[in-house]
Design goal:
Helix content is about 35%, strand content about 25%. It is α+β, with helices and mostly antiparallel strands. The chain has helices at about 1-10, 20-35, 60-80, 85-95, 105-120, 130-135, 150-155, 185-200, 295-305, 310-320, 335-340; strands at about 40-45, 50-55, 100, 165, 170-175, 205-210, 215-220, 225-235, 235-245, 250-255, 260-265, 265-270, 285-290, 325-330, 330-335, 345, 355. A hairpin with a 3-residue loop joins strand 14 (about 325-330) and strand 15 (about 330-335). The structure holds adenosine monophosphate and magnesium ion. The site of magnesium ion has 7 residues, from helix 9.
């Protein structure tokens, strides 16, 4: 049953539903009439090193999907670390040398990255790249555990304070030679914001997309019901721990289970704690952020995973622009008060225990 639902989501995002009141049903019927099946348009593409799925309802759906794909490719060509002529590659190549002129999107994403870094006491660190590369995560070579000596040499190059942005000139500079920016923890969230804005501008009022599992919801389903999005069981890709019933927001998950390698029987994942240079190890299996701000949701899912549950909950208590669901190594699924309102826990069969945290 569960597997069926996940498959349905992956295929076309046509999910099961909540029952509404009569008034809502009438409103839904009107909307459904407005959106005939012919208005359903879907697209799958590969970009930013991941699979992207789009579903939307609109009479000009095909053209809008083409525009969305172009927008993704435009952002990828600015942010990629594997394309040598991207603005981020140029910035990295100039580390310790000159400032580099930026387009408004690159300037914006770097500013947002720094801002989330400051908010999270640098648990989110877009300058972590030299260390991530030393582990082999963003290179094509072998993944391996770097020596302590290598990490001690690289960690001083990861301070976001040494990424200087000049807003008047629209430039950025990496102050130390060997520094490098890696937008892997934020680029898809930023792209989600841009895609959602583009779809809305084109008149889409009902749509759902997944940029490698980072979900963006536009409005509701055409019949007025909420979209349903699963939170994966980090221990089993064919299972999930619960369902979020959402509209018009972003749902973004980070977890060590998403990318890792094994060496001498030990598992090492891709989210690095810049205090140690090692994969974050604070007792979490995954963090899901729900927010109206896709960029923030992406940055925070990575950051809160690094911070661990206690610090993450403290940050949530000081904030008012996101909710979260945590899955812990000791088998708990923990929803913040706001998330709990639209989350249905389904992990009992797998011995997960459900808790909520209050403000
Ligand atoms: P996400 O899947 O959004 O959690 O992002 C993970 C990716 O972000 C990694 O593959 C790295 O490219 C990058 N990354 C790793 N550790 C960090 C960190 N502490 N802060 C920011 N980005 C990171
Ligand atoms: Mg992230």
């Amino acid at each position: 049953m569960k597997r069926k639902i996940i498959m349905a989501m992956m295929l076309c995002f046509t999910f099961s539903v909540l029952v509404g009141c009569a008034e809502k049903r009438e409103e839904a019927q009107n909307l459904q009439n407005k959106y005939a099946d012919a208005d359903l348009h879907e697209m799958t593409t590969f970009a930013m090193d991941t699979v992207m799925l789009f579903t939307l309802y609109h009479e000009d759906g095909e053209q809008i999907l083409t525009d969305a794909e172009q927008e993704i490719r435009r952002l990828e060509s600015l942010f990629s670390v594997t394309k040598e002529d991207s603005e981020i590659s140029k910035l990295n190549a100039q580390s310790g040398l000159d400032a580099v002129k930026l387009s408004s999107d690159t300037e914006d994403v770097l500013k947002r990255g720094k801002e989330i870094g400051e908010l999270t006491n640098q648990a989110f660190d877009i300058a972590i790249s030299p260390v991530v590369k030393a582990w082999g995560f963003t290179t094509n070579g072998e993944k391996h555990v770097p020596t302590q000596e290598t990490l001690e040499h690289l960690l001083p190059l990861t301070s976001i304070e040494d990424l200087v942005i000049d807003e008047n000139e629209s430039t950025a500079q990496l102050r130390k030679k060997g520094m490098a920016v890696d937008l892997g923890g934020i680029a898809k969230g930023y792209a989600s914001d841009k895609i959602a804005a583009l779809l809305k501008e084109k008149g889409v009022t009902s749509g759902l997309f997944s940029l490698g599992g980072n979900i963006g919801a536009i409005g509701t389903k055409p019949n007025g019901e909420n979209w349903k999005v699963a939170i994966e069981n980090p221990l089993n890709a064919n299972d999930y721990v619960g369902l979020l019933s959402i509209q018009d927001c972003f749902v973004i998950t980070s977890g060590g289970y998403q990318r890792y390698f094994e060496e001498n029987g030990k598992r090492y994942h891709h989210i690095i704690d810049s205090n140690t240079g090692y994969p974050a190890d604070k007792g979490l299996l995954s963090v899901t952020i729900i927010s109206k701000d896709g960029t923030k949701a992406d940055g925070l899912s990575t950051a809160l995973f690094v911070m661990g549950l206690d610090q993450a909950v403290q940050l949530w208590r000081r904030s008012n622009d996101f909710e979260a669901v945590f899955v812990t190594e000791d088998g708990r699924v923990i929803a913040t008060e706001g998330a709990a309102r639209f989350f249905s826990f389904e992990g009992r069969d797998n011995d997960f225990k459900y808790e909520t945290v209050q403000r």
